[in-house]
């Protein structure tokens, strides 16, 4: 695989991971009700996210409510909000930086500066993957600890929601895509152009008197 193709593939994976982070941030399913009593049908199902909590009735109706106070939230909830929003903004900056330094664009002349710019974009995407991993693992640790804590009543036990799995998938895409972008930069850092340019030599034919035409030397 050429460095340009590796770069495009890495950028595509990073964009998918960035969209996944935004989706995980918005979904209210970071932790959901745990069914530990063995009941087949339950009256209510609770969803809790970074911005709101929802109650899903057995009839299919759902009611959601935004959190009243930011300062009243738990530390892991506040950190999750801050980090996911930061990753969403940082991913946008990384996208612009990577596009500017990409080999398929002409925003910057080919050279070491262009390679450093695209490498900076790849590093930013790797940083995004590490940052989004922190709140996802933090939430998972709290949920698992509370689930196996005998002091917590069954009605208050929670399980990991779909947003956590989306966050893990987004982390993997960001790390893999950022690594591919950095690898493509290191492979093309020797000054070679990933998109080959064909040169054609002019054909010089002698004239009738045996001399070459002077216009070939202009």
TrEMBL record:
Subcellular location as annotated: Cell junction, Tight junction; Cell membrane
Gene3D superfamilies: 1.20.140.150
Cross-referenced InterPro entries: Claudin, Claudin5, Claudin_CS, PMP22/EMP/MP20/Claudin
Key words, A-Z: Cell junction, Cell membrane, Membrane, Tight junction, Transmembrane, Transmembrane helix
TM annotation in the entry: 82-104, 116-144, 164-183
Top-level taxon in the UniProt lineage: Eukaryota
Any one GO molecular-function label of the UniProt entry: structural molecule activity
Topology versus the membrane: Multi-pass membrane protein
GO CC terms: bicellular tight junction; plasma membrane
Family under the similarity heading: Belongs to the claudin family.
Annotated function: Claudins function as major constituents of the tight junction complexes that regulate the permeability of epithelia.
Name of the protein: Claudin
Organism of provenance: Platysternon megacephalum (big-headed turtle)
């Amino acid at each position: 695989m050429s460095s340009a193709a590796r770069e495009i593939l890495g950028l595509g994976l990073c964009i998918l991971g960035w969209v996944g982070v935004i989706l995980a941030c918005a979904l209210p399913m970071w932790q959901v009700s745990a069914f530990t009593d063995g009941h087949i049908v339950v009256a209510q199902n609770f969803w809790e996210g970074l911005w709101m909590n929802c109650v899903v009735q057995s009839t299919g109706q759902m009611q959601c409510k935004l959190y009243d106070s930011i300062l009243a939230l738990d530390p892991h909830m506040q950190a999750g909000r801050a980090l996911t929003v930061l990753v969403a903004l940082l991913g946008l900056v990384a996208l612009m930086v990577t596009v500017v330094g990409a080999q398929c664009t002409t925003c910057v002349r080919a050279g070491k500066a262009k390679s450093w710019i695209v490498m900076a974009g790849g590093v930013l995407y790797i940083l995004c993957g590490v940052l989004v991993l922190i709140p996802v693992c933090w939430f998972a640790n709290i949920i698992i600890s509370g689930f196996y804590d005998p002091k917590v009543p069954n009605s208050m036990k929670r399980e990991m929601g779909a947003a956590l799995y989306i966050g893990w998938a987004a982390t993997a895409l960001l790390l893999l895509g950022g690594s591919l972008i950095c690898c493509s930069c290191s492979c093309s850092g020797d000054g070679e152009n990933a998109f080959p340019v064909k040169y054609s030599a002019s054909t010089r034919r002698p004239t009738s008197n045996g001399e070459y035409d002077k216009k070939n030397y202009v």
